[in-house]
């Protein structure tokens, strides 16, 4: 998959992961890379932007197995934004499927 296309959907992917539970940075990056194979710095750069836009927060939690970890948690605003992104993605996917002559499946 093209890197620009991956970056375009990364905000949706990160927020979707965070909507299920809090993640620490390395763990989130690992799980996302199983799907999109992105550079580690790309995920962290977008996390920083999501924090600046109040779509997620970062907090530090002590670990029993080593140093403290930075965790990320979606905010209420982030959940609303995620719902909007999901709807936009569904509409975009339908249009592209029709354009390519295929059928649309949710």
Automatic annotation (TrEMBL):
* Domain (Transcription regulator PadR N-terminal): residue spans on this chain: 14-83
Taxonomically, the superkingdom here is Bacteria
- Pfam families reported in the protein's UniProt record: PadR
What is the protein's name according to its record? PadR family transcriptional regulator
């Amino acid at each position: 998959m093209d890197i620009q296309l991956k970056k375009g959907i990364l905000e949706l992917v990160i927020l979707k992961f965070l909507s299920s539970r809090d993640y620490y940075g390395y763990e989130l990056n690992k799980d996302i890379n199983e799907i999109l194979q992105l550079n580690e710095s790309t995920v962290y750069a977008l996390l920083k932007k999501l924090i600046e836009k109040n779509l997620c927060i970062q907090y530090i939690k002590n670990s029993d197995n080593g140093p403290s970890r930075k965790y990320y948690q979606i905010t209420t605003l982030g959940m609303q934004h995620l719902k909007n992104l999901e709807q936009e993605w569904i509409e975009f996917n339908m249009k592209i499927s029709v354009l390519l002559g295929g059928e649309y499946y949710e």
